[in-house]
C-alpha cells in the first residue's frame, strides 16, 4: 500500500509504494508556507490510513467470505468497497465537530476519507485539496486496476500484498512465467501477486510429481521424499502440498481446466482455511493433460 510522508526540507508531501524490487516515490504536492508541520504530518498520516483501508478491500475481498448478510464480515467488506464511489465527495465535505460531538462512519474507507477531509479543512487551501484529490483518485484507480489482474503502474504495489484469494488472470500470468522457467523465475516475485504465484507453483509441482511418479512407479506424494534420498532438499512443505492436492482428488483436465484443489491448498498454506476458492482456474502447463 502507499505510504505518505512529509519532507520538511522541501516542504513537500511525498507518496511511496513497493514495486517488488524497491520502492517508488513521487511528490504529491508542495505545501504552502502557511501550513504548520503538525498539520502536514497529520495529513500524511490520514492519507496513509486511507490507502491502507482501500487496499484492504483488495487483500480481503467480500468474495472471500461465506456470507454477505447484513452485519457479517462479508457485508462490512462489501460496504468498504462500495464506499470508493463516495471517497472524493466525502473528502470535499467531511464530517466536522459540532457542539462538541463528531459523527463517525462505521465504514472504514468512508471514515478514512472523512479524516483526510478534516486534515485538509484544518489547512484550508483549495489548491492543495485538489492535488490531494487527484492523488487519492489515482490510488483508488490502482486498487481497481489490481482487482482486474493488471499490476502495471501504481497497481504494481499489489505485488507486495497477500490476497485472500487469487486472481485467475494473475494465476495465468504466473503460469506463463513458470512455463518459461519451470525451475523458478525471479519475475514471480516482481511481476505477480504472491497468492497467485503460490497457486501456479502448486499446479506445476503436482504435474511434475505426477509425471515422475508414472515413470518410477511411486505415489506422487512420495516423489520428493525419494528425491531427498538422492540429493538433500527441503521436501517437507512441498510434500504437504502434494498430499493435500492428492487428497482433494481434483486435477487438471484439458476439458474442464479445473485447478480448484491447487488453489485451495496454496491459499490454505499461506493464509489458513479459505471460505471459498471456487472458480480459481489456470491454464494447463504445456504438454500436461491428466485425470486422477
Overview of this protein structure:
The chain is mostly helical and 292 residues long. The chain has 2 domains: 3-160, no CATH class; 168-271, no CATH class. It has helices at 37-59, 73-82, 87-92, 108-123, 126-147, 168-180, 194-216, 223-230, 236-248, 260-271, and strands spanning 3-7, 12-18, 23-30. Helix 6 packs across helix 7 (194-216) and helix 7 packs across helix 9 (236-248). The chain is elongated and about 75 Å long. The model is unreliable at 250-261 and 263-292 (pLDDT under 50).
Keywords:
292 residues, mainly alpha, three-stranded antiparallel sheet, 10 helices, 3 strands, elongated
Number of helices in the DSSP assignment: 10
The whole-number mean of residue pLDDT values reads 84
Shape: elongated
| Major sheet size, sense and barrel closure | 3 strands, antiparallel
The amount of helix comes to: 40-55%
| Topology as a string of helices (H) and strands (E) | EEEHHHHHHHHHH
How many β-strands, per DSSP? 3
Strand content: 5-15%
Neighbour order of strands in the largest sheet: 1-2-3
Counting structural domains, the number is 2
Low-confidence stretches: 250-261, 263-292
Which structural class should the secondary elements be placed in? mainly alpha
- How large is the radius of gyration? 23 Å
| Assembly context of the chains | single chain
How far apart are the termini?
41 Å
